[in-house]
Structures
1.
Amino acid sequence: MPNLYFKTIAELAVMLDAGETSSVAITQAVIDRARAVDGQVKAFLSFDVKDALKQAKASDQRRSEGKSLGLLDGIPVGIKDTLAVKDYPLCCASKILENYVSPFDATCILKLRKAGAVIWGRLNMDEFAMGSSTENSAYQTTSNPWDLEAIPGGSSGGSAAALAAGEAIATLGTDTGGSIRQPAALCGVVGMKPTYGLISRYGLVAFASSLDQVGPFARTVEDAAILMEAMLGKDPLDSTSIAPKGETGYASVLKNKKGPWKLGVPQEFFGEGIHPEIKSNIEKAVEWYKAQGCEIVNILLPHSELAVPVYYIIATAEASSNLARFDGVRYGLRSDDSKDALSVFTKSRGEGFGDEVKRRIILGTYVLSSGYYDAYYLRAQKVRRLILGDFEKAFDRVDAILTPTSPTPAFKRGERSEDPLSMYLSDIYTISVNLAGIPAISIPSGFTKSGLPIGLQIIGKAFGEADMFAVAHAFEQGHSYTRQTPNL
Ligand code: GLN
C-alpha cells in the first residue's frame, strides 16, 4: 500500500469518508515528507506548517459534523508562487517582490477553500513564469525527483517536482506557453491547461494576459478533473473569464465516455529536434489508441513552426506592459541606491529583475515601439489567427490531437541556461495551444532507458475538456505509468 503522501485525491476522499484517515494525518504526512526530501528537491520556497494543520483540523471538524465539502475537503494542495494567497508571501520567485505578502486570495484559491482544500506552501518557479527549467528563480534551483542532477522543467517546476516527490497531493501551476504541461511531462505527473478563460486569472500575477491560464497538477487524470471542476467559472473580477460552454462534471463524465475517438496526429510534431526515445514512445501510444479501435487521422498544423517566434513577440509585448507596475514604489523591493524619482524606478528594476525578465522586457518594448509595431506585433497577431485556424480545421475531422509534450526528457541543470534560444525550444509542442486558447493535458506515457519520465500531450477543442479528459483517462487505465514514484 503506498504511503498516504503518494495517494490520489479520489483514494483519500474514500478513506476520509470511511473514517480511515483524517485531513490532519494526510497533511502531517505531506509535511513530514517535505521535511524529509525537500532539502534535495527544493520545490518549496516556503511553507507554513501551523496554518496548514489549522486548515486540516477545520476540515476534520466539518467532517465530524457531517458537513464535508466534497472530494477536495481536507486535501493539501501546493501553490505556485505566482498565485495570491492571503497573508502568504507572493514573490513570483523574483527579488523585486521580495518580502511582499498578498493581502487577498486569488479566485482559484478562494474556490479551492470553498471546496475545503488545505492551501499548502509556496512553490518555486522561473521568475515571473519566464523559463522552462525553473533555473530562472531568483532564490533556488529545483531538482527533478527522478534525477536530482536534472531540471524539473518550468516554469511551474516546483509544482511538478513537489507532487512527483510526494510533498503534496496535488498542486497548482500556470501555463502561458507550456509551463504546466512541460514540467508535468518531465516529472512524470499529470498537468493540464484549460481553455482560455475557464479559470479566473484574478490573483494570478500577470505575465502575458492573453495566454496565461491557471491549471492543476495531479497524480491522475481523474484528480486533475476534480480540481478543474472546483476552480472553473465566470468571475466578475476577471473580464476574460467565461462560463463553461461544453459538458462539465468532468470527474464522472470521463469514466462514462469510452470512445472510440477520432484522433489526429500532426506530422509536423515528429520531425527535426525530437529525441528518438520520445518519438518512439509517442508512436507507441498512438498505436495503443489504434488497437483500442480509435481512428488515427494524419493532420497538418502547417503554421505550427511559427508558434515559437510568434509567442516570443506576443508574450514579451504583453510582459513588458504587465511588468511596468513593478516600479519600486508600489510593491516589494526599492533600491537603497535611489536618489530621486527616476532612479527609484531604474535602480529598483535594475536590481530587482533577473536577466531573463530584463531580456523579455527589452524585447517586448522593442516590438511594441512605434516603428516596429506593424512589422512585428501586428504580424504576430495575424499569424496567431492562422495557428488557431489550423486547429479549427483539424477539429472538423478529429475529436482530439495526440503529440509529444516535450521534444526531450529532462536535461541536466546548467545545460541550457546560457543559451536562451535552445531553452525557448522546450515549448515547441505546447506553445501553439496557448496561442489558440484551447485545452491540453500532459499524461505520463513511459520512461526513457535512463529512467526519465515521458509525457503524452492530448489537445482538445475549445471547451472540449470533457472529451480530452476521457481520452487521457482511457490511456491511463491501460497503463501503469501514473502510479510510479521516484526513489527518494
Ligand atoms: N517556457 C515558456 C516561456 O519561457 C513558457 C512559460 C510559461 O508557460 N509560463 O515563456
2.
Amino acid sequence: MIVTTDDLFKHAYGNYAVGAYNINNLEQTVGLFRGNLGQSASNDDPVDPALSAPFIIQLSRGARKYSDKRFLEGMIRTAEEVFPKAVFAVHLDHGTEEACYDCIDSGFYSSVMIDASHEPLAENIAITKRVVDRAHEKGIVVEAELGQLGGVEEDVVGSVSLTDPDEAVEFVEKSGCDSLAVAIGTSHGAYKFTGSQGLHFDVLEKIQELLPDGFPLVMHGSSSVPKEWVDRINNAGGAMKNASGVDENQYLPAAKLGVCKVNIDTDGRLVWCAIHRESFRDNPENFDLRPPGELFMAAYARYIAHKNGKLGSAGQLEAVRKSRVK
Ligand code: G3H
Ligand code: 13P
Ligand code: ZN
C-alpha cells in the first residue's frame, strides 16, 4: 500500500526513523520489499511481524534516467501486488525544480525533495516555495534542504556547511516545506569521515528546539558503510581504502531529536558490489546473472531488516497501518 510520507512521519516522530532507501533496478526492489517484511530467501517466505517495517522508496534523477522512470514506476506498482502487506511511500530524491514538477504531475509520487541547498538562502526559499505551492495543490508533501553536506550528490560536489538553526526557522516559515533535510556532519558516499567525527547532536538539538513541535527532520548521507562489507569487497578484488560511515547506534538518538527519515543508498551498493565480486571470484566459469542476483536479493533483504532494527522501524508496520485507519 502506497501511503503519504506525512502519515509515516506522524507515526514515527520522536520514537523511530523511517528508512528511505534508493532503488535503481529489479533486484534492489525485490530485496527491499522482502527486507521490510522480514522475508529474505523468497517472495513466498512468511511475513515476520517483528521485522516488518514501513519504508520510503527513493528515486534519484540518476535512477529515473538509468532505465527510464516508467520502468521504476512499473516495478514499484508490481511490487505492491507481489507484497500486499508492504506499507511504503514513494519519494523523489534530490530533485531539481523541473524533476519535482514532473513527479508532482505524474500522480505517482507521495513526496518530492527539492534540493536548492547550493543556492543562497533567499533563492533556496524562493525555489522551494514555488515547488511547495504546486505540490500542495495536488496533496503532495515537500522535503527541502538547508546547509550543505560534503561528498558528491548527482552532479553537485558539495563542501560541508552545517545547517544554521536560526536560518532553519526562517527557511521553514517562508518556504512552507513539510520536512527539512539538515546538514549535521554526514556526507554522501562511502568516505564520510577521516577520523572519529560523528553527528553534531548539539546542532540537531537546537534545530528541533526552534522549529514548530513535531516538524519532521531528514538525515541524508546516513549509510553506515559497514567494515564487514567493505572488507568483503576488498577481499574479492575491490579497492576501497579508508571507507567509513555513520555509526548505526546514532540513528535512534537522532530519531529522538526529530529525525523521521534516514537516507541510505551507499550501503545497498556495497552489498551489491560484495555479493557480485565474491560470486564471480568463486565461480569463474559462471556467466549467468541470476545466481549472483538471487544471492544479492537475499543478502539485501537481510541487510534492510538489520537496518530497520537500528532505525527502530522494525516491528512498526501494523501500528502504522492501524494509525491510518482511525
Ligand atoms: O544522494 C544521492 C543518492 O545516493 C542517489 O545517488 O544520484 O547516483 O542515484 P545517484
Ligand atoms: P548515503 O550515500 O550515505 O547512502 O546517502 C544517501 C542519500 O542521502 C540519498 O539522498
Ligand atoms: Zn541525499
